[in-house]
Model the fold of this input.
Amino acid sequence: MGESNITAVLEVEERNTGRPKRTRKGIATLLKDKEDKYTGRQNELDLFNNALESKRWDEYKILSYYGVGGIGKTELRKKIMKKLESRSEVEFTFIDFETGELQQVEKALIHLRTEIGKKYPVAFTLFDAAYIIYMGKTNNAINLNEKTLPFVEKGTWVADFVNIIAENPYVSIATKLINVISKRIVHALPKEDMDLIRNFESLEVRELQELLPQIFAEDLERYLLKTNNKFVIFIDTYEALWTDKRMKAYDGAVDEWIRDLVLELPNVFWVVFGREPIDWGLYEETEDIDISYVPLDALSEAETKELLEKHEILDIAIQDEIYRNSEGHPYSIKLSIDTYNNIPNPVVSDFIGLRTPVKLFNRFIKYLLEPEKQALELLALTQGWDIDTYEHLMDSFRILLNEDDHHKLTRFSFITQLDGNTWDMHRLMRDSLIDYQRYEKMVKGRSFLFNYYKKGLSKELVRKETHYAGKLINQAFYQGFMLMEQGEISKAYFIDWFREYDIVFLNSKANYLTLPLLHQLRTFLENGASREDEKYLGVILYDIAFVYMDENRDYKRAERLFKEVLELREQKFSDDKIMLAKSYFGLATLYQRMGRNQEAEVLHEKAFSLRKQYCDSSNIIGLAYSANGLAMLYQNRKDYEKALEYYGIALSIYENLDKSHYGKISTSMMNLISCYHEFHQYDKAYEFSIKVMDIVKNDEHFNQIRYAEVLNVFAVTKTALGQYEEALELLQESYDIFKDRLGEESIYVSKVLHNSAITFKLLQNDTESINTMNKCLEIKNKMVSIGTLKEENINYSYSQEMQRFLQQDTIEYDQLKFNF
Done:
């Protein structure tokens, strides 16, 4: 018999001389074990109680608990909340930023709203309406349902609204909301609230998103003013807002919305748990907030032993060894308890020498059943999991565990249930399990998860259920990014895959869901040193610049990024003429939008020249883009012959491409229509408007925004034929789509209003004509004042000119200037 076998026999004999072997616990016992066994931290508990009692009305107050990972912050938070359950005069809720998706502002607010709504009679009427409108702008309104609106409850006005949302698509969401709310709420909705809801619909997506914290606060504050109860909001794992690499580019902006929320809710007591104390000293607006700091240290020996006794660890020698090893660190103590419970007949020698987390972890893992160990290793790779993910992992890796076994896994102290459907693992245990498993197994697990989430994604899902798709792409991105960092998949494969979906989010006006991921890639590539890193850095910087230009209208930031890309490519990739041309084109397009037409022309010509010389069949579409850009430039200068020449070049290229480029074809054709119309070739304009309408309607990836653009253009061509009533109908349909999807104050709505004002004038309805043009200019003047529209913008100058022109008694059609 070998030495190791002799040792094993002696160890078994030693165990058999101790107390009787314990049987495995059933589910009922496991549930009982979850009962409160909290010990220690009395001083920290007293500090909370004193702070709560001393909080005055209208006093900004925060209690900041901080300490290293595993020191017991979450346990303390749970203990405080447990004690508050018996106090009817105190109401509370919590949010844990360990859950990745809750780091997004709108998801965090929805979580708080849903949790508060389950427990207290808070009427979140304004917030619910604002969020529904927000979702309607970022998703198809028809996809508003229980899945996209988690606060839907039977018998509420929200449930009624979901049931009728698909009815009459030409009635705005705000109007439907007001009608449903007015019928449901006993006391009529105040006129001010109705006006607010209508105003929500007029905002662009980004503007409404930025207002969501204030709207949430307004509803909650109204409730608090009607009750004498105190209200506490707990925030756990505050530092998780910054742990993700993607957020490094945002710095202090990460928690700006939380500062705003605190300042809007003076009657809420905030309790924040994190690894570091809250540091808001740099912000003037927070200087009136009373922030108290409470450091969390290790448990004392007496507290540790009291906790162990509550968990039925009564052997003094084992207690001494656990305290000696853990030095009172709660995570190590809890893992020792898990280890104790897993050993059939524990003795003191099982705990001797476990002074480091690694040794303690190794002893814990030793006594797990093999399927449990395999399951935990895989679950550690996730960013949180649900039952479906768990079952797919078990099936794919042939681990013989079912849903009941999953429930048993949650007995461990390091697993937390986030809500009814998702679970997560303490980051220290996650790190230990990842380090413990073989590298090959870890790669296999990540590869499965990457493909699992990828399989759930589709471009159609992005278009129809944008927010759910955003959740999936975040999960897939995380796994793929880790594999790319480890060199298991190529940068080219991963980045190209992500960009293929990113453009769909951009076209769905949901770039805010993927912009943080672009920033994460940017940080990763900036830290790289290879030529491939530099090449893809240029690609990602260009994508980010385009988002800031096209969606956010942040021209200063876009210019800085476009210039950075151009400098990088001129210095490092001057031989890559195609990428160089793209950089010229991007900056030229930006300057054109900013009204810097001379600079734009120089860059457009450079881009066109390079593309004409170097483009082949694989990238010929770039030449079409450049031709279209130059055509627009010449059209704005009234050089119609040159404009038509370049539009012709663009269209000849587009028409030879496959259907996937329908969007670009339609854009170029709409530009051509505007050129023909300005050149007074009205029959040609109308002919092409029929063609472009046919293209957009029959596009297999039908885009509602593009359809609304075509309706606007088609209406203008109708006016040239004297079909004014038909034109107004088309303009009304276009207006409704733009208002519902982009907000009543979007640039697209202002264009439709401009054209409607002219059409009213042609119908000799002067009053409606003047009023409509005034509405158009209200929108544009506001955009100019905040810098999202330049005074030099040609459509803006047309609206100013037409405002004066429409006041004349008689007008000549050829003198009219439309917004295309």
Notes: The longest strand covers residues 90-96. The radius of gyration is 31 Å. Confidence is low (pLDDT under 50) at residues 1-24, 245-250. The chain has 38 helices and eight strands.
